[in-house]
Amino acid sequence: MGDRERNKKRLLxxxxxxxxxxxxxADCGAADPDWASxxxxxxxxxxxxxxxxxFPDISKVxxxxxxxxxxxxxxxxxxxxxxxxxxxxxxxxxxxYYIPQADDCLVLKEQWIxxxxxxxxxxxxxxxxxPPGNREGFLWKRGRDKAQFLRRRFVFLAREGLxxxxxxxxxxxxxxxxxxxxxxxxxxxxKIGNPHGLQITYRTEGxxxxxxxxxxxxxxxxxxxxALRAARLQYLKMAFPELxxxxxxxxFKKRWFALDPQERRLLxxxxxxxxxxxxxxxxxxxxxxxxxxEDLPKGIRGNRWKVGxxxxxxxxxxxxxxxxxxxQREWLExxxxxxxRPLTPLNLLTASTESGHRSR
Length: 360
Hints:
This protein is α+β, with helices and mostly antiparallel strands. About 25% of the residues lie in helices and about 25% in strands.
């Protein structure tokens, strides 16, 4: 047994203890976690605690402030903590595997948590995790002219770096053949209207096109996502196509923007569900000279929207206006979060191919 207030105080002190990593969620990095898995010995946020509740045979959770904690459980938390447990369960995370952040969608967090603790894919003494390799299966794809989703067969050939999809199950030829060098995938659950919604963007005949797909299984769609990332990383290690860079200045135009923090890209479209992307801006890090500034440069005014922000890259400035101060603050926070993070090896490789793909 233990004193409720005394143990609560011990836990909150442990949360802020230096060298423990406890001040951020062990699974997504969210600041100031309010929950903990007392069977694993980690501190986690409210959202991730909901995932942990789905496998109680492995992880049991408590609120740091609302639940009662025995002395023995507090001692267990003291002897473990986020960094120690992460060293065990994240010992061999492959470079291609996407580690979700606090603002990522639930399906990425859920499959990351299950891969770590339930399937134990990244432990030193676990089974060797092979590259994803070839994949074949059915995904639900949004029709090009209609809003409904249609069942389509997708085939991915990892060695060749090709993604194909077929309009009919017994179709003789693929509807599209996409090379991994022209492809990018990102989860866009709200935009697609499905919790497993994946957006596949690829370049064809000088244009960018989007495929909007999902699968009923969260594991299946995340496995597809990481298979594409693995193949793209392999391609980028072997070849760096040189692309011309150009810049074109335009007056303000109303566009739909989507931030992909995984690939550090700001994408824009004429309409939210357009198949073709009109342009993009690669977002490096503050260390490389990228920054975002509140408001517009002196002497520049928007058409109707008076608040805005400016993204500064080593090559040029990108100026945007927002419909409200609330949206301005939200965009500033998101951009600053991305720019504050150092580039991963995959980001560095991707950046080498992006100089000619930036917004024009």
